[in-house]
Structure formats: C-alpha cells, structure tokens
Amino acid sequence: MKQSQLFSKSSKKLSEAEASKNAQFLIRGGFIDKSSAGVYTLLPMGLRVLEKINAIIREEINAIGGQELLMPTLIQKKYWEKAGRWDVDVIFKTSSSITKEDKQDFEYGLGWTHEEVITAIATRFINSYKDLPKSVYQIQTKFRAEARPQGGLLRGREFSMKDLYSFHESKKDLNEYYEKVIDAYHKIFKRLSLKALLTETGGGAFTTERTHEFQVLNPAGEDTVFYCSKCNFCQNQEIYDPKEHKNCNGQIESARAIEVGNVFRLGTKFSEAYSLNFLNKQGERKPVIMGSYGIGPTRVLGTIAEVFNDEYGLIWPDAVAPFNVHLIGLTGKNSEKIEKAAESLYEKLISLGIEVLYDNRDLSAGEKLNDADLIGIPNRVVISEKTLSKNKLEIKKRNEKGSKLVDEKELLAMLKK
Amino acid sequence: MKQSQLFSKSSKKLSEAEASKNAQFLIRGGFIDKSSAGVYTLLPMGLRVLEKINAIIREEINAIGGQELLMPTLIQKKYWEKAGRWDVDVIFKTSSSITKEDKQDFEYGLGWTHEEVITAIATRFINSYKDLPKSVYQIQTKFRAEARPQGGLLRGREFSMKDLYSFHESKKDLNEYYEKVIDAYHKIFKRLSLKALLTETGGGAFTTERTHEFQVLNPAGEDTVFYCSKCNFCQNQEIYDPKEHKNCNGQIESARAIEVGNVFRLGTKFSEAYSLNFLNKQGERKPVIMGSYGIGPTRVLGTIAEVFNDEYGLIWPDAVAPFNVHLIGLTGKNSEKIEKAAESLYEKLISLGIEVLYDNRDLSAGEKLNDADLIGIPNRVVISEKTLSKNKLEIKKRNEKGSKLVDEKELLAMLKK
Question: What's this model's pTM, rounded to 2 decimal places?
Fold first, then answer.
C-alpha cells in the first residue's frame, strides 16, 4: 500500500478525550477513530491488525474442533427471560423510531453474550449422546451498556468477541474439553506475543467451582492478581487465599492485569432453562452439560497496543503487524533516482508476498521517520541518497536501537526469517 | 468435514413460519436458523457460503482501490440529526436496561447505513485535493426496523451489507468512479452466477439524477422492472418511461426482480452537513463530492438460494458452494471395506485442497442421497458395493441428471477443472 493513498493519516496531536495509552497511540497512528465513549471505528490499518488476531484465534479454535457460525445481535425478550437475564445492567434494549401498532415487536436486547441463543439452536440438533460432543463459536460484535467505558479498547460499549460454546454428555467430557481450550488459549496468546497468566477466579452467579481467566500483567488493567514468582500459581484478588499457595518457596507478588480471555463451566444452567436434553446410552433423558469460553479480539488489540510501545509510538509484534515492512524513500536532491529505486523495491517485495507500507509522500525526513516510529511496523527500510551511493539499504527493527546497511539480497534474507 | 460431526442436521420438515423458498431450503438444509421474524443465525454451512460471497466482493472492491474498515453500530443521535435522519421509520433506537443518571448517554440509533459516520471520519483525513480521490468500504451487520420482514434472507431486520463510500474533487471524477463500481459489480455478480441487470431508477430524496440498481429477475423480488429483450435497457417501474427505449426494436417485458446492489451519487448532501471540505488547486474551499454503493451479502445468499434450486433442494454454484464435494459412503454388507475406501478418498481429496463434506453417518442410502440433494453441493461422489466391485466411483453433478462411473484419476481430473 502506498501511504499517499492510505485513507488515514497520522497525527501528532494528543486526543484530549482519551486518557488511555492504547487509544492515544491507536488514534494518532490512524488505526482507530473514536465515535463516542467506548465506541470506535477500526480504520483500514486497525482492521488489518484485528483480522490477523482473528485469523490466529480461528486457526487454534478450529484445531480443537470448533465450528464457526454467526448468531444475531437482535435477541428477543423471551430468550433473555428464560434464563433471567432481561434486566441485567449491561443490556441495551431497542425500540423502533416511530410508534408502531405493535411496540413489543421492536423490542430486543442487543447480544452481549449468546448462551441463550446457542442453547435454543442446539435443541434443533442435539437429541442423543451420538450428537455429542459439539463445539461452535463466532467472532462477533457485542454490545454492553457500560456505565463508564474506559481504557480505550480495553472496555467499550461495542467490541468484538470470540465466544465458543461446547456441549457434552458428561462432566468428565466437559473437563477434558475445558483443558483443551486452555491449551488452545495458551497457544493463541503466545502467537500474539502476550504473556497471559492462567488465573483462578470464582464462578460468579453460575457455579461454586473455580473458573479461569487469562490475565496480562499491565498497569492499565482493571483486575488485580496475586501470582508466584516461581510456579504457575495465580489467583484473582476476588478469591486470593495465600494458604492455597503450597509446595513452592516462590514469592507471591500482586499486580494489575488485563483479562484477555476466560473459560467457564456452565454446567446445566442454560440447558435446563431451554430443555436442551439428550438420551444417554442407557436411554435416559439428561440435560446437556455446557461450557463457554471467551476472548475479546478488540480488547486483545488494545492490550497489544498498551503493552508494546515506547515514547515514540507503537511496536507491533510480527504476527499482528498491519504491514511487515515500512519502506521509506527519503527524497533529497536526487529525488527521481530515489523514487525509482524505492518504487522498484516496493514492487519486488509485494511480488514476494511481503506486506509493505510504502511512504511515497512528499514530506521531510523527520516527518516520515517520526510517523514510522508512531505507526510501529516491525521493519523500517530506508532508501536515501546516502544508502543509494553505497548501493545499500538501511534496515532498522522497530524494537531494536541500531540500524544496519545491507544490500537487497541480505534484506530479503532478513525479511524471510 | 465429517457430516457426523457437523453441528447442523438437515430436516424434512417444512417450517410453518416461513413462506419463502430460500428460507425453507436454507433452514431445512442446516444453513440458517430463524431466531425471530427477519433475524437469522448463519449456521456453519451458511457462514461458509457467506464468507465465499464476501471474499468475491472484497477482491473486486479492493481491485478498484477500496480500503476496508469497520464502523460502529452504535451511532449517537447527534450524528443522525445533522443530516436529518434521526426520525426515519427504519431506525432502531437503544436505551439501557435500568434507569441510569444520564439516560441520553445510552441513546443510540443502530447503524442502518453509514454516510453520517464515514463523512465525520473523513473530515479528519481529507483537507486538500491531494487527499482525493479516496474510497473505503466495510462488510458489516446492519439493522432496519422493517415493519414486515419477509422473503427469508431477502428482507430482514438484521442483515449484512457491503457499503462503499467514495470521495472526489469533481463531479467528473465521481462519474468515472461510479462507472468503475458498476464494472466491479458486473464482475461480482457474474462470479456469483447471478444475472443482474443494471437498472435505472430514481434518486429518492437525495438527487434528481438517475441512479442505478442491480436487479435479478425472480418472482420473489419486491421490485418490478421493465427490460428489453434485445438491448441493455432496464428501468425500475418507479421511473419507467417507454419513450426512453429508443433505437432498438426489441420487446419490452416486465418482471419481478430482487435488488442485489445499488450505486448512488450522493453529491454534497453529507459533506455539506458535516463540513467535509477540501482546498482545490486554486486554493478555494469546496465541499467534497461523494458516492455510496451497496451490496447485501446475506440478501445475495438468499437470492442465490431462491434462484438455484429444484423440487429436491438447493443447487449451489461452484464459486459459493459450502463444499466442493459431497462424498457419500453407502455402507451395505461390506461396510468396513466401503468405509475404508471412503475415508481414504476423503483424506486424499482434503490433502489436495478440495473442500469435502463426507457423509459417514449410519443412515440408509435413501436418507443420505435425499440429504445430498437438499444441501446441494455441486459434486456428489458415491462409493458403494457396486462401484467398489468395479474399482470405480460414481460422480453426479447436482445440476445435471445423469451420473458417471469413473476411476479415481478421472475423478480428480474432473474436480480440478
């Protein structure tokens, strides 16, 4: 993509309405636009990052047998009422603009989670132990009427969610799948370069059993976790009990953390409310045992921006960077020669399947280099009079200090790694 | 995918609440689930089809320079009011579940179109003729409070939309892009196997100029078009004038049609409302000239289902079929041998990158073959005792009558075409 054609432009100006670091950098870099509190547009570069996050999530969830579908946002009152969730604080309710004869017909709760809908659908397809286990998921926009949306993409009123639901004939089978999902989540967060701690927490209204969250230590987080410096012990403050930290002489430390995922044993709460039953091998009718598992891709995007940055801007990990290379032609006296060389390298990199943002704009060297630091693409490649005179290119990794003069062959070898 | 593991199951039962052919077949085939009037879930097979439609749209829109982004659904009152669209019939309005201190803060109109939002965003990035032209699009869920949702996926309250917006410095430039979009739409509908007629229609409230729709002739359509049997003349009933059909001796015929796309010159209506101005080459401040262009992917999905079917079920065109091959093992006496052969072919086809639905269920031949007709995958491949005894396979195209006995090599050659 040529930067002169990119819809967004970077900006030096800090956004006054944004306290959070992730939103500041993402707005200034041209990744997102703030529409209202907790509601953002993903601009082309932001959507590129989000789609890379989504692709990683899809790969790992497909690998554990998840089948992707897409449920609606408009969910009728009768669905919510069955499980007692019509009058929760976070639900947005709709009405139609003008008074119509049947007002009720336009009354929906916007989907903020989809246990109700998926359980109702599952009654069409699950009748016997032969139909189990099953797992389905969606990556979808969710809506929550947060009183105080904050933290940029960390807590919004409109955000994306990967929600996975699983159906089992026995608790044992649920527990096995629960462990599989935990493994898949570890793989996902590792690929996303996020160090996410598997954290024990309470089950809220649903269960007295412990459930688990994935927490990324960061001062911008809303949660507090207590974790061991040596072993994998990590508990949410809500349930933390030092007596449970046994057989390890590591130190317990506490820190703020961002919840990027959670796994949950629903048991039979929803299957009982919706009469989702199956005939077991003995011919007995039993409620299906369910689990639900979430990751918020837009929150993950915000978390990555919050974690990977320095005073100059963002530092995208390779796996989710909007582009792999930021190619910059520093046009000086010999601008035609430099443009030609940059254009030719741009075409070559694209033909090799490398994603390139090519800064072909008529701006000063300082402006271009500052923009590159703000946008945070992993590899910055500069062609200038100086490099051209030596028949070389300058490459600088965004996450390293020094730059290197290399020839084209060396550059390609470095980018292919 | 093994059919025994597929989340959905086909059903012989007609849905009483559905009058439309597309919804009947899509529900019975396990492509969609009806949540409420005009609101559907896309089940895994339905989502596969939708994603293929989306991929074709993306390719052609990217090819004319469209940059994909994703705007929000929650749009504040102040946005809608600027262009006078807060009190339109089709808008869904939200409120929060419980009474909060600031009620207004939870009042949004759900996005049913995004001229308001994109124009507001564009003021951040478009200031000069150097920033023009630009075009951006999204594929997003839209919401319209239709009084009487009908026609299955043809008119819903919740549906997907590809909405493209373009920005120009002159009417001439807009008109050139308008023609480019028309060309791209012709390519898209051709790839989707839909014969879509470019149809002249009126400009509604926005413009006295003619605009264009793409109409697929079908009795389920809500529009009526008048078209020439010989030339490209086609007008929507709303503006039809026989005197405009000149220089052609073809017959004018009229028919019901489904609108699958539209292109629209917005002019300066929104840029003036939002002060989206640019400095032209002469240094004068001018409002940006805009166009907007829509295709409804879920409506396209419904249209394809409505057009391509017979009394037994759906007949997917290759480009959007959920799978390329429906492999069926007809297990009889020698079931182990047949299963082994089918399983081995399944693995082979997948390793060649062919998308296969493998019916490995323990059902009768009749049930399996009826299901295959209902689901409508283009190539049905049967392995049975009869075929195995000749070291052959039976292949039948869903859109042809006869079947053929071929060996594996011939099969692979046929599927690669």
Answer: 0.97
